[in-house]
């Protein structure tokens, strides 16, 4: 099972888009994805509407915005809001990669919770409901996004493949770093200092990846 | 006594998880309805009647059985949903129902004598006379044994009763005698035994303060995690308490049960089926755990080496694994 | 004159043989109690330590006109524990079954269903009555709505409910008393005997929450249902259980007897109890369908 491999396409598109696009355009995309899902996964939307009425903020650690999902009503809506906006009934926080894996059912939320890679505050019931409702569906954000691109699907795929290579390289770099940090048979190091080191490494890699993505995006725009 | 084959019984919290379990190598899946009639009554989880019927068709087409857990205890005057659940399980073509309450067992025995009855772990039958009681009264064909017995004790029970047994192979470590633990309702007013949710999400809260995360159930602080410290479920039995001025995991550490390295012993003991716990987990968990156990069981059948602990530690509570009561020293 | 509906539940804590003898002798001589439950519910390792006073206690209670019922283990796993219950079932005294194993071993003689067997519905009740149950002690988690139906006028059996004492919340294989004292269950040194009312477990922020009693977990608070006994009786409860605590149980029994017989008003009885019921806070949430640890002030 590819449990830990990042899913580069939506991840890269999301992160790439989020770093270069203005908020209203992103909101429009998110809303369009939701409308697409209404056709491809009607049960999902019905189930989301039957949850307790709540506004759930989904905040990716590595995005400048957060998603405000309003469930428990018809129609279910999604908006992009500023990072510092408050007032949600519940908040879910993780990295973009983790969130995409969660939505696509590639990783178990309890495992993330045990590892503290997923943080939840506020109305826990609606978060659990949201998780379960999503897990009922076999979703692919990649195909939903691709469907949106319409005639632009081809260059989008090309862009995604390039980004995939970048992400893979980053993944390999992380894996080798992990091996350095955990030499076989060695004593367990102090966990928090390890995590701090990982965080700074990841931050550096993310910054580099971000720069690469913007460059690629510019190039793709020219191509298109 | 030894059996030829260990049946792999896998959780299906949703229709998608059911398909995942079947495709990952389950011999049998178990699921529940979307209400208080089963012990995993969480929002958004479980199957309705149509989904169960479709799930049964999907599973049967792939030689896989479907069990339906109707394993909570009805409140007086409100037994109808439990009776209806039994009727629907029969109508959907389920291979067996997993029951705990004496009244529901009695109803199923009378109304659907041909429908196979399994005794849920919630009935807490941990000895031979209890098992015989359920055999004699309700013709129970299989017992899901409580997570409190050692492998030797499991073997003795099988020898003495001759009944089919299903034992937990992977999932939570339940330190309390199951089906009769009132800790969660002591804190929340909602009963796991009747309403089907231990530590109901509606009463769980996490708050972050000073770099720590505190978990509360019904307003009571159950735990506090430092940065990087593995988290536990917000159930009272996995909380940290202070006795003699010292904070500790008084009941159970955040640790998951994994019997993968003692499968030969369980097979030797005469166990019929291995249960993977976790209808509340995502289907990614189902895929990984079921496939890992499938490989381990196939290897066992070929006489290959035992699968060591560790392969699934990423999926267990606290990231740690234990043999629980199967091993020595747990008590 | 006593109204013969008060019972004394089995002693859940591990008291020494001498202390037990003194306690039960005084109950025999002075307490307005009808039925006394004896026997070990929590841990079979305790039984041998107090066996020498058992017969004397039974004789004294019987001589005083008390009905004696033998309570059995709530969690039975070893062949030795099964054999012990089989022996008890061959005796003259009625048994209280706290594990279904006991019902099987009694072989269709009359018995009492203890509060550790789940009877939350009329369906479960009727199965047990058909099997010979003459009295059912309802689980402490039972709320008044369900109780109305299970204990209602059609109930073909006597119904008992605990109205005083810490309420049992769970039983386990693990001994938490041993764990709290850095001991293992196999080498526990019967450390539970140190605490005559169990060991208090606090939350991380200092809230006294639970009582640890060997393998059993009880509420921290004392379940005091003095304000509810009139309602319980109307709903069909026939017997009222007092669970032994480390307080003057004879005095406690007198207050309940006075209240049940109408000799004193409930406010007066409650005030009397306040001064003799010990340091544990009062709780009554389960009966009122609330969190068990809560206290619902005035009777609903």
What average pLDDT do the residues of chain A reach?
A: 75
Strand element count of chain A: 5
CATH superfamily of the largest domain in chain B: Aldolase class I
Silhouette of chain A: globular
> How would you name the CATH homologous superfamily of the largest domain in chain A?
SCP2 sterol-binding domain
CATH architectural type of the largest domain in chain A = 2-Layer Sandwich
Name the assembly state: heterotrimer
Tally of individual helices of chain B: 10
Q: In percent, how much strand structure appears in the residues of chain A?
A: 5-15%
Order of helices and strands of chain A: HHHEEEEHHEHHHH
What is the alpha-carbon Rg of chain A in Å? Answer: 18 Å
Report the sheet with the most strands of chain B, covering strand number, pairing sense and barrel closure.
8 strands, parallel, barrel
From the N-terminal CA to the C-terminal CA of chain B, the straight-line distance is 27 Å
- Summarize the amount of helix of chain B as a percent range: 25-40%
Q: How many strand elements of chain B?
A: 15
Report the uncertain regions of chain B: none
Helical content band of chain A: 55-70%
Tertiary shape of chain B: globular
How does this structure look, described?
The complex is a heterotrimer of chains A (224), B (331) and C (300). With 224 residues, chain A is an alpha+beta fold. Chain A has 2 domains: 8-142, SCP2 sterol-binding domain (Nonspecific Lipid-transfer Protein, Chain A, 2-Layer Sandwich); 149-223, no CATH class. Chain A has helices at 8-20, 23-40, 42-50, 96-103, 109-115, 124-135, 141-149, 153-181, 191-223; strands at residues 54-60, 65-71, 77-82, 90-94, 119-122. Chain A has a 5-stranded mixed beta sheet with strand order 3-2-1-4-5. Chain B is built from 10 helices and 15 strands. Chain C has one domain (6-168, 219-288): Aldolase class I (TIM Barrel, Alpha-Beta Barrel). Chain C has helices at 17-30, 47-63, 79-90, 100-106, 122-130, 144-150, 176-180, 229-235, 249-260, 266-276; strands at residues 6-8, 35-38, 67-71, 94-97, 111-113, 133-137, 158-164, 166-171, 199-202, 208-213, 216-223, 239-242, 282-283. An 8-stranded parallel β-barrel of chain C has the order 1-2-3-4-5-6-7-12, surrounded by 4 helices. In chain C, strands 8, 9, 10, 11 and 13 form a 5-stranded mixed beta sheet that branches. The two termini of chain C are 29 Å apart. The model of chain C has no long low-confidence stretch (mean pLDDT 94). The A-B interface holds A 1, 3, 47, 51-52, 101-102, 105-111, 113-116, 119-122, 124-133, 135-138, 191-192, 195 and B 13-17, 42-45, 200-202, 204-208, 213, 225-233, 254, 280-285, 287-288, 291, 314-319.
């Amino acid at each position: 099972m590819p449990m830990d491999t990042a899913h580069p396409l939506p991840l890269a598109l999301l992160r790439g888009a989020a770093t270069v696009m203005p908020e209203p355009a992103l909101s429009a995309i998110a809303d369009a994805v939701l409308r697409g899902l209404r056709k491809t996964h009607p049960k999902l939307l019905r189930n989301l509407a039957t949850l307790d009425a709540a506004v759930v903020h989904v905040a990716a650690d590595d995005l400048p915005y957060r998603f405000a999902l309003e469930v428990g009503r018809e129609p279910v809506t999604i908006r992009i809001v500023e990072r510092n906006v408050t007032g949600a009934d519940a908040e879910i926080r993780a990295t973009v990669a983790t969130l995409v894996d969660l939505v696509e059912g590639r990783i178990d939320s309890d495992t993330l919770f045990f590892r503290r890679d997923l943080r939840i505050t506020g109305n826990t019931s609606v978060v659990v409901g949201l998780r379960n409702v999503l897990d009922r569906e076999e979703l692919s954000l990649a195909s939903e996004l691709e469907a949106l691109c319409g005639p632009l699907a081809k260059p989008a795929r090309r862009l995604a493949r390039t980004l995939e290579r970048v992400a893979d390289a980053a993944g390999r770099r992380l894996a080798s770093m992990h091996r350095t940090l955990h030499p076989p048979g060695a004593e367990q190091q102090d966990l928090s200092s390890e995590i701090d080191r990982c965080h700074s490494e990841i931050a550096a890699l993310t910054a580099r990846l971000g720069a690469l993505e913007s460059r690629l995006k510019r190039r793709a725009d020219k191509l298109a | 006594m030894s059996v030829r084959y260990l049946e792999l019984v896998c959780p299906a919290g949703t229709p998608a998880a059911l398909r995942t379990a079947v495709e990952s190598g389950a011999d049998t899946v178990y699921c529940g309805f979307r209400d208080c009639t089963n012990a995993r009554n969480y929002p958004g989880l479980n199957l309705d009647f149509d989904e169960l019927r479709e799930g049964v068709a999907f599973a049967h087409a792939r030689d896989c059985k479907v069990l339906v857990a109707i394993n909570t205890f009805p409140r007086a005057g409100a037994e109808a949903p439990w009776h209806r659940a039994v009727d629907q399980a029969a109508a959907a073509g389920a291979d067996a129902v997993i029951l705990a309450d004496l009244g529901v067992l009695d109803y199923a025995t009378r109304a659907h004598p041909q429908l196979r009855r399994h005794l849920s772990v919630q009935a807490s039958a941990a000895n031979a006379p209890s098992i015989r009681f359920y055999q004699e009264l309700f013709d129970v064909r299989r017992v899901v044994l409580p997570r409190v017995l050692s492998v030797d004790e499991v073997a003795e029970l099988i020898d003495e009763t001759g009944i089919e047994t299903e034992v937990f192979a992977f999932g939570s470590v339940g330190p309390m005698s199951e089906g009769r633990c009132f800790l969660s309702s002591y804190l929340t007013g909602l009963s796991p035994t009747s309403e089907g949710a231990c530590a109901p999400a509606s009463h769980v809260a996490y708050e972050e303060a000073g770099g720590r995360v505190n978990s509360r159930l019904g307003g009571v602080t159950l735990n506090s995690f430092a940065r990087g410290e593995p988290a536990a479920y917000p159930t009272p039995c996995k909380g940290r308490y202070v006795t003699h001025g010292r904070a500790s995991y008084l009941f159970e550490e955040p640790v998951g049960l994994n019997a993968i390295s003692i499968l030969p012993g369980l097979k030797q003991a005469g166990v019929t089926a291995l249960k993977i716990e976790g209808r509340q987990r995502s289907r990614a968990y189902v895929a990984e755990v079921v496939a890992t156990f499938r490989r381990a069981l196939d290897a066992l059948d070929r006489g290959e080496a035992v699968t060591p602990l560790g392969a699934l530690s990423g999926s267990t509570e606290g990231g740690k694994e234990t043999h629980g009561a199967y091993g020595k020293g747990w008590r | 004159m006593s109204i013969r509906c008060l019972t004394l539940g089995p002693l859940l804590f591990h008291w020494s043989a001498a202390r037990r003898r003194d306690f039960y002798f005084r109950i025999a001589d002075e307490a307005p109690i009808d039925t006394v439950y004896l026997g070990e519910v929590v841990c079979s390792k305790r039984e041998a330590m107090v066996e020498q006073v058992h017969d004397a206690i039974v004789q004294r209670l019987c001589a005083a006109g008390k009905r004696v019922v033998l309570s059995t283990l709530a969690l039975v796993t070893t062949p030795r524990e099964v054999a012990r219950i089989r022996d008890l079932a061959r005796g003259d005294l009625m048994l209280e079954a706290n594990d279904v194993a006991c019902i099987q071993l009694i072989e269709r003689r009359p018995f009492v269903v203890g509060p550790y067997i789940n009877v939350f519905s009329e369906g479960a009740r009727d199965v047990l009555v058909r099997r010979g149950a003459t009295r059912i002690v309802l689980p402490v988690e039972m709320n008044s709505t369900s109780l109305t139906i299970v204990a209602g006028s059609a109930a073909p059996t006597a119904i008992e409910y605990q109205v005083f004492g810490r309420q049992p919340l769970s039983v386990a294989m693990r001994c938490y008393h041993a764990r709290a004292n850095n001991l293992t269950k196999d080498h526990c040194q019967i450390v539970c005997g140190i605490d005559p009312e169990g060991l208090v477990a606090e939350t991380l922020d200092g809230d006294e929450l639970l009582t640890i009693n060997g393998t059993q977990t009880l509420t921290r608070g004392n379940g005091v249902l003095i304000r509810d006994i009139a309602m319980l009786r109307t709903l069909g409860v026939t017997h009222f259980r007092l669970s032994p605590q480390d307080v003057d149980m004879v005095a406690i029994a007198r207050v309940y007897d006075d209240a049940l017989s109408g000799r004193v008003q409930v406010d007066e009885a409650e005030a009397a109890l306040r001064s003799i019921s010990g340091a544990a806070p009062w709780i009554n949430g389960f009966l009122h369908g609330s969190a068990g640890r809560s206290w619902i002030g005035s009777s609903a």
